[in-house]
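ok posting inputs for the 4'-deoxy-4'-aminopyridoxal-5'-phosphate job
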Amino acid sequence: TWANVPQGPPDAILGITEAFKADTASHKINLGVGAYRDNEGKPFVLNTVREAEKRVVGKKLDKEYAPITGLANFYTAAAELAYGSNSAPIKENRLAVSQTISGTGALRVGAEFLAKFLPSKKILLPTPSWANHKAVFSAAGLEVGQYRYYDKSTISLDFDGLKADLEQAAPGTAVLLHACAHNPTGVDPTKEQWQAIFNVVKERQLFPLFDMAYQGFASGDCDRDAYAVRYFVDNGLPVALNQSFAKNMGLYGERIGAFSIVCESPEEKARVDSQLKIIVRPLYSNPPIHGARIAAEILNDAQLKQQWLGEVKSMADRMIEMRSLLREKLENLGSKKDWSHVTSQIGMFCYTGLSPEQVDRLASEFSVYGTRDGRISICGINASNVDHLAKAIFAVSG
Ligand code: PMP
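and the output
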């Protein structure tokens, strides 16, 4: 029956994991993973998540369906975390918000909404962007274009290119912005650059769609990481926002996220809400409840929330420490290259500037696995493997 089905290409990241698993070297390092690891290289479940889960189980709640847009005590608290509890759209009851199947689900619901209601049906992504962005937006029927973001020659933001491309965009085009900890480059705009981006977006009448998969993971401070989103909203632009709790709560497999749209009035919000329901219903009917209950327990309990913010900070701090350590070791080995980008970049990923051939040598000669674009996951680095990693990078980069 399916003789006409062609073999699809393998997922690039999963391919790395396979190669890593097959490698028998004891000093092998997997830097392809997009999930936090503790200093022993193990997956990490937050103490506050364990505690919240215990409380949730203790309540002996039923397992009935959630409403189509999910649990209100989760998505209300999630929105406050992103926009700030004093945010005007929340206070004025004009934020349409829905629980979603993590960040990817939020993107897909948002993409479907834009495909239905944004007349241009066009979205611009930064070059490069998280690989799944293009797939999600195309699948929803949007035309996907690009704007310049990263300058290979300086290993930093191509701010002039970014501005020039947004200035050229047709009014009504959507623009995807990584709210913080840009994946895959780890390069974020400064506050001043965000303000300039805001000005262009406003002047050109573009529609800003923020993807915030790493709130708290960039600086360790959830408010600081929400700077760009809040600046746009507080200055009157109606943004849409995707949130994920995969990284900052370590709830990867629970699939817990949110999608929201800032509206002009409660009446507009009601119309948008009704359409979000119409989009979600045939996709997956309603979202899972367990992760939402855990996240809600944490976000709605002042003490647990404070403790959680501390855990987010300690994860971010460990990554910042590993960046410093890696740079220091490379410099101590006598590398003449400038490694300042290792510490100036932010979040879970580092764009090393290594070429695909150098990445191949890292794997074949040193059992160090990253993606061929030169991206390494900082989470995979720990006190026990950073020496080997530095030696390997030094050897292939000369
Ligand atoms: N957006 C970006 C930029 C990401 O890096 C990720 C995770 N790698 C996501 C969205 C979505 O992840 P999830 O669906 O696991 O929340």
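notes: DSSP finds 16 helices and 13 strands in the chain. The two ends are 54 Å apart (CA to CA).
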